[in-house]
Every structure is written in C-alpha cells, then in structure tokens.
Specification:
The protein is an alpha/beta fold. The chain is built from 15 helices and 5 strands. Bound molecules: zinc ion (ZN). Zinc ion binds next to α4.
Length: 322
C-alpha cells in the first residue's frame, strides 16, 4: 500500500527520500539539507528535531519515530519557541563569516535546557567562507553527544569536502506545478481562489514555500525580479539568439539594476531552470540547453560579484550558452 506522504509527516509534503530516514536504523549528528528557498529545508529540520524530543517518543521503538505534533515539545518547535534550537544566520549579508560560526564554539558544551538534545540550524550555509567552514569543522568533528547540526543550503557545491564528509546530505524535492496546485488547493483552497493558486504555483519554482509566500503577499517587490527571471529564461529557451540579446538589452540592462538585484535575478533564473528540469515533458535537447544556460549563468554571477561590467557580462552570458 502506498504511504500517503501528506499524512506521514504533517508539515512536509512529498520528499519521500527524506522521509525514509524516519524508518532508518540510525540518526546522523549532522544533516545538510539542500534546496532552493521555500523547498522545505526548515520544515524537514524541524520534523527531525521534533521526532527526537517529542514527548510520545519511545526510545526502544526507532531512532527517529514520527513526531506527534501535539505535545508541548512539538508545539514549541513548530511555533518557534523551543529554546534549544539555535539559529546561526548571515543577517542578509553576502557571506556567512567566522564570527557567526564562533558562536557555536562558545555555546557547544552548554547543556540543553528543554530536553536531552540541542540543535544548531545554520541558515544559508552555502554562504559560509572557507574560514568559517574550517571553524565549523572543529565543532562538527567531535560534538558533545547531545548536539546536532543542520546545515541549510541552496547548493552543497560551495561546501568543503571535509564538511560534506561529516554530514548526511539530503536534497529537497521540487514539485510539478500541477502537484503544487492540488496540494495548496487542498490545504488553503478556502482562503484563495483557483486562479490565484495557479498563478502562485507558476511563481513557485517548484516549491510549496514560495507558492504560499506569493499567496500571502503577491505585491512583494521581489516578485518583479522573479517575474523578470521567468520571462528571461522562457525567452532564452524558446527564442532566437538575437531576440534573447534584445531582451537582455531592453528588459534587463535598461532597468539599471544593482549588483545584488542582478545576482538575485540570475538566482531566480537558475531556480526556474531547476524546476523546469523536473517537468515530465522536458526533452533531452532542452535539458542540454538548460545545462549550458546554467553554466553560463554561474560564470556570469561570479563576474558580476567581481564587479565586471554588467552589460558585457550579460551579453557574453547569452553568447556562452550557444
Ligand atoms: Zn510530540
């Protein structure tokens, strides 16, 4: 009998491979959860944490039994009141430096307050500098038995091999638009109409989290950049070279965006390609083109961050994808 994933873990849709760890025979002391914004990395981390401290937990049953979502510990976790979950983040900076990571070292050996375990959730772990990663390595190598780490990242490519070898890597699943529409309609259909949910799913890049954010705040200025990225990728995939170069000139360069806005637009473009790749009707030829585009975007992003001329970088990016 097929397991109904929606009931299997209350807050995490799909992601059957991650759910498999709940029937496994061991728990890792460190997990790397990899996926774009809104793909459920936090939810997955919180479900694992809840499983470990849930009041209904029976140690003899399984290392990671399903959490009840009802007991005081579960409720605190999902309402963000659990004091033994320590968040490390970069406060919107472009990197996550060693100072933030040192906060872990300073508190690593302090016993947990609420239960028998303490959890560090490192946000944007892909932005850690090498120095920060090396500092983290010391804590990851020999943590006290009551400590667990969750490294949330958009891509594990930026993490050092030494970090990756000490953690269990789990990739978040991206969903097809029709699956998102059906899930969101079932959960939030009384709040939003059909067209709104459909539009939100088109802006979701295959993630439930982004669909819900769009529904909650469709006028967020961020969506202007996101929509631009979606149109750009569609143009790049389907139109001629000269038409795409014209798009770059008229719709991107003419907007005189800041360095961060361009990078954000390129990130959204990567997300859009990522979610298109999961679509069942994508041909092999399209996938080949997508991979070339991904490569060109990654090179362009590095050049933009190194302050190269934006116009030159964007034109070469399109030409590089031929
Ligand atoms: Zn519980």
């Amino acid at each position: 009998m097929a397991v109904n994933n929606r009931m299997f873990l209350k807050y995490l849709y799909g992601n059957s491979r991650i759910k498999e760890i709940f029937s496994g025979s061991s728990v890792s002391h460190a997990y790397i959860l990899e996926g774009p914004k809104g793909s459920g990395k936090h939810t997955a981390a919180l479900e694992i944490i809840a499983s470990l401290v849930c009041f209904t937990r029976n140690d003899s049953e399984s290392p990671l039994p399903l959490p009840c979502h009802e007991c005081p510990a579960c409720k605190k976790i999902f309402n963000n009141h659990y004091v033994d979950i320590i968040y490390i983040d970069n406060n919107d900076k472009t990197t996550l430096g060693v100072d933030q990571i040192r906060k872990i070292k300073d508190t690593l050996y302090t016993s947990p307050n609420e239960g028998s375990k303490k959890f560090y959730i490192i946000e944007n772990a892909h932005l850690m500098t090498d120095e920060a990663q090396n500092a983290l390595l010391l804590s990851l190598e020999e943590p006290p038995s009551f400590v667990m780490f969750f490294l949330l990242c958009e891509s594990s490519d930026n993490l050092l091999d030494t970090i990756k070898s000490r953690a269990h890597i789990m990739k978040m699943e991206l969903f097809k638009e029709e699956d998102i529409v059906s899930y969101v309609t079932e959960r939030y259909g009384s709040l939003y109409d059909e067209n709104m949910i459909k539009k939100a799913s088109q802006n979701s890049f295959g993630t439930i989290g982004r669909t819900i954010s769009y529904l909650e705040n469709p006028n967020n200025p961020e969506y202007e950049i996101q929509n631009l990225a979606i149109s750009f990728v569609e143009n790049w995939m389907e139109h001629t070279l000269s038409e795409t170069l014209a798009f770059v000139s008229n719709d991107i360069i003419a907007k005189k965006m800041t360095k961060n806005e361009i990078c954000s637009m390129l990130d959204y473009s990567l997300n859009k390609i990522g979610s298109s790749m999961t679509s069942s009707n994508t041909s092999k030829q399209s996938v080949k083109k997508m991979l070339k585009i991904v490569n060109a975007i990654n090179i362009a992003k590095e050049q933009i961050l190194s302050n190269c001329n934006q116009m030159v970088v964007l034109y070469s990016m399109v030409l590089n994808s031929i």
